[in-house]
Amino acid sequence: MSSELMVSPEKERVEISEREIEKISEIARYALLFATDKRYYIPLTPENYERCYKIVERLYEKGEPISWENFIREWGAELPSSDKETALAEASAKLYAVAEELANHAELMHGVGRDFDSTMEIFTDGVREAQGKRDIAIVIKSLLEEVAKARKRVDELSRELEESKRQIKELKQELKRVQMEALTDRLTGALNRGSLETMVSLNVKRRKKNGTPFCVAIFDIDNFKEINDTHGHLFGDEVLRKITEVVRGSLSSRDLLYRYGGDEFCVLFPGRNLEEAFSLMERAASNVRKIPFIGLMGKPLRVSLSVGIAEAGKDDTPKDLLLRADEALYLAKESGKNAIRTDRDVKSRSPWTIDINSLTTVD
Fold first, then answer.
1. Contact 329, 220 (CB under 8 A)
2. 147-175 pLDDT per residue, tens
3. Which residue, among 282, 280, 287, has the nearest Cα to 242 in the 3D structure?
């Protein structure tokens, strides 16, 4: 064998290494492209980038096209079909695709206009060069045919445009629904903890910057474990749902109700001072006590809340504020439950409290 045809093991290893590096670089580029693309509802975190990389690598090894469709399929395949993050990604991808299609239709219609302008120029030149009526008639006939073609194409594009508009409207509604589901606790309909820390942080920063008041209330259902054990979990779920409904109805649209976990809830009061937050939670607690629950054997059951409230100070962190509200809740429990306590009470153990037994509904 000629020495020119022989490749040394060292050179072969170098070539393999270069190919591997090129492959890794290509996968990394695609992974970054998918991870940062605006059509997907994917938070850019190291964990999500690693996941994007693995998906692209898998497509590469399968020999499948590295396309948006294949990527989102693989992204969803790694998770349960009910996963909210996947649903958001898929809805966002569909919406983005239809928006691109809409833009393409607009460009095509613009193209038809440009083509027709060129046809008119040709027609004008043809009329100038015509030798007689017969030549002019031929040019006019040709123009009319082009006009008919352009009109037909415009009609087709208009129908496609309307269809795309309809699809994008439906997909916007679907995306809004899925986004709300992703932010909402399935059992109670309250907001879930997904955005709680972000909203607390945002309002704490606003307090520091502009002096805008902000309060947090944490409350739970007194003796909820006993209610569950005595009346069953289905009854317990109904208690959670009904209390959420009544508390939400006692607040205004600007106040945010979150399910904190189990039977514990959190209310954010942007723009409200401690007295205002106290008054609203007073009304909510009173209204909850009036809910006519019917337990086992038709026995009436009254449910009460214990509430802790804290007001943001200029030097607070989100963690500080939530911790003080939690301490106030603990004090309400320690005081015999069915009560509201604040961070002022925690600090001074003062009597600036209220026994919910004496409350009436606030109009």
1. yes
2. 666 667 767 767 776 776 676 666 666 65
3. 287
What pLDDT is attached to residue 4? 47
SS3 213: coil
- Of 39, 86, 49, residue with least CA distance to 182: 86
Identify the residue with better confidence: 360 or 315.
Answer: 315
Phi, psi at 82, each rounded to 5° = -90, 0
- The radius of gyration of the chain from alpha carbons, rounded to an integer in Å, stands at 33
257 within 8 A of 188, measured Cβ to Cβ:
no
> What whole-number distance in Å separates Cα of residue 150 and Cα of residue 130?
24
Residue 11 clears pLDDT 70, i.e. is over it: no
How far apart are the C-alpha atoms of 359 and 310, rounded to whole Å? 21
Residue 258 main-chain phi, psi, to 5 deg: -120, 145
**136: Cα separation from own chain's centroid:** 63
Residue written as token pair 């009609």: 155
For residues 34 and 72, give the distance between their C-alpha atoms in angstroms, rounded to a whole number.
9
H or E segment to which residue 293 belongs:
strand 293-294
- 64 φ, ψ to 5°? -90, 150
What burial class does residue 284 get, using C-beta atoms within 10 Å of its C-beta: 0-12 exposed, 13-18 middle, 19+ buried? buried
Strands 264-270 and 256-261 come out as antiparallel
Beta strands 293-294 and 300-301 are antiparallel
String of DSSP letters for 28-42: HHHHHHHHH-TTS--
pTM over 0.70: no
